[in-house]
TrEMBL record:
It comes from Vulcaniibacterium tengchongense. TPR repeats lie at residues 502-535. The keyword Transport does not apply. Keywords: Repeat, TPR repeat. The keyword Repeat applies. It holds the Pfam family TPR_16. The lineage of its organism: Bacteria, Pseudomonadati, Pseudomonadota, Gammaproteobacteria, Lysobacterales. Signal peptide: none annotated. This is Tetratricopeptide repeat protein. It comes from the Bacteria.
Amino acid sequence: MLAAALSGPLAAATPRPAPADPVGAALEPLLAGEFALQAGRLDEAAASYLQAARAAGDVALAERATRIALLAKDDRRAGEALALWRAQGGQGLGLAAAEAVLALRRDDERAARRHLRQLLSAPGDAGWRQALGVLGAGARDPQQAARLLERLLDDDAVPNKLPAWLAFGGLAQGLEQPELVERIVAEVVRRFPGEPRVGLLRASQLRDGGDADGARAILADLAARAGGDAELRRALADEYRRLGDYAAAERALAAGPQDDEVYALRAALLAQADDKPALTRLYEELRTGADKPDPQRRLLLGQLAEFLDRFDEALDWYRGVPGGPQRWTARLRSANVLHELDRRDEAYRAVAELQGDAAAPDEARRDAHLLEAALREEDGDAAGELEAFARGLAAFPDDAEILYARALSWERRDDIPRAEADLRRILVAEPDNVAALNALGYTLADRTTRYREALQLIERARTAEPDNPAIIDSYGWVLYRLGRKEEALVELRRALTLQKDAEIAAHLAEVLWELGRKDEARKYFDQARKLDPDNRALKRALERAGA
């Protein structure tokens, strides 16, 4: 046998190979992993990164391999990478969170619960925030997340900190688990008696349950006790806004400390309420002492005058902004006001002057091109809109903001090839531009049949921002278009848990409709209508479903 022959003197004289260079051995799979990531092929990236981590014996590479494998939903490789990460000395909250996510994927809720308890027992706030993220984004479905949260409550694992309890209460609301929310509210009341922020959670629970009057009663009591607590008053205003009661939201802010930021919030709320008398009172209040050349105050007064359709006064305020960064915003707003006054030639001259002002910062000059395009679109001047974009790109070649705006313009006109071309131009200059990756992937998924290509683009965006609800929505939508409807349902539910949005709700409703769950679908169609009845995705979904 060859082995026997090599066991004699000849074998002893044969030089042994030099020890392998771990860096060199890891380089090829590492490069392959990066190329696969750039192409949106997460399964290949997961395999290559795991190979690189094994070759290099590097804890950071093992962590990276784990995260990519989890994102690729490759549970086998994720388990191997996790074991490698642990063996190479990995520890801390990131490791525990990854362990919890993988356990949830494997339906090992006992192990997931153990890792979540580890996170929740960590000092500071980072641990419970990680646990919140695992339950919100790592669970297979809302029911699994709700079960784990309930068991953690049974274990008394949530730290005795009000922000943590409020956050988990908000998660329970997002998961649409009213009984669980009620349990958390009761526990918060017991643990933090007299704490006004507990009332906010209770009010939001009543709002979600359809009891708007009950929510308003709690908020009114809180407002009476808020005093000068600016943070609480902003939270009250936000809750009133969610109820659609913009006037009450403005009153909550008006009763506390005032500065220009609060004044601006009040003005925006009153504008949403279309409460011209209250806007007028606020405007008159702010005019007192406005002879002082304060750029921020004069800019705000100009915006208020715009809300009130006092365009001539708005123009005077904007032109009176003496300097500072507000000056450039004021010049843009002046052009918009001139357009509102039907002084269109002057409006376009104003934007042209700003476009050519060498003293203006690049961002202001670029925004002047974008404003001109928006005004041309409003005038129904399609050729002028495109010319404005073209001149903007001549001045700022391959500017991502202008290309993105023009791509959206092409998409509105159903010219998908040109929309795609502009988004790809962004990606040539900025291969990791997440907004462009997501927009192009979603456009291909929604408006073409190039679903595999769309998936790769969205996977690249997911790699950069795995918890971004807009990207999760795009991912769910492309899964639906690929016929993977049950997987799509999981992702779209996750996205809606993270962000209440009309387009996400419409997508979820359409998938449910296709699955024959029409009563549940109608619930989400109704939710989308309440959020934004004019949403284009909602209108298309309703038309396709015939709902």
